[in-house]
Amino acid sequence: MDQYTISQISENDLPILFEWAKKAGWNPGINDISCFYKTNPQGFFIGKLNDQIIAMGSAIIYDENYAFCGFYIVDPSYRGKGFGLALTKARLDYIGTRNAGLDGVIPMLSKYARLGYKIAHQNTRYKTKNLALESEHHPAIHPLSAISFNQLREYDRRHFPAYRDNFLRCWIHQPGSKSFAYLENNHIKGYGTIRPSVDGFRIGPLFADNVDIANQLFIHLAHHAHGEPIYLDIPACNQDAIKLISDYQLAPVFETARMYLQDPPNIMMEHVYAITSLELG
């Protein structure tokens, strides 16, 4: 008789997460998994059928009020048989009564809606094509490592539904990445990170008080890619972000939708020019 079990993942299984995400075409960042896991090690789940991994997903708890569900993959051979639903219910049990976000691919939205999720906005992934930008010195642009972490976490909190200290400390110091802040009178007005991925680089987050600041940060971040492809996940509700990428003729790759179990959090979406990741929000 077949036996299906759901358990929390061990650190030894993390390479499997990366390989599955890579195979699914998600273009994960080379060092993403390590930062994801450090954020909430108990928040990663696998489903095994007769000791074979056939499903996985995360449910990252940020604080007593907010969580994010992502990294949801079911082996194609076992889809439509209830294994993924069982894993999802286990993840929802884990986060309890917290509001939870997710970024769902379009074909899955109706299934998420049946679980109680509601669409807040669309996201589109864009890709650069033969983009070569010269990064000239700008007096307001500084390496993020020169900024106090407390300043960073407070600015980040305006644009994300919870403080995420463990995640940020790892994320902005990834090998091969670059992170910059835009300062005015020693106050952060924007920041962004670019990191190496399976194909090229990915920018996220990119938060900025206005489109001109976002543009300056984008130029400095994009310069780090040295002409390789760059991907950004941009919320469609930010029209300034759409204008910015149209100036550089980025091409859309695919769409997702940000959904929440409860009301959308009160964050400054008009300042979000690229979300951090589809897996952790």
Give a brief description.
The chain contains eight helices and 13 strands. It has 281 residues and is an alpha+beta fold. It folds into two domains: 99 residues, Gcn5-related N-acetyltransferase (GNAT) (Aminopeptidase, 3-Layer(aba) Sandwich); 149 residues, Aminopeptidase (3-Layer(aba) Sandwich).
Q: Helix count?
A: 8
- State the major sheet: 13 strands, mixed
What low-confidence regions span 5 or more consecutive residues with pLDDT below 50?
none
**End-to-end separation:** 39 Å
Radius of gyration: 19 Å
SSE arrangement, N to C: EHHEEEHEHEEHHEEEHEHEE
Named CATH architecture of the largest domain: 3-Layer(aba) Sandwich
Helix content: 25-40%
The overall average pLDDT, rounded, is 93
Fill in the CATH topology of the largest domain. Aminopeptidase
Note the overall shape.
Answer: globular
Give the class-level CATH name of the largest domain.
Answer: Alpha Beta
Number of strands: 13
Strand content: 25-35%
Structural class: alpha+beta
Please tell me the total number of domains.
2
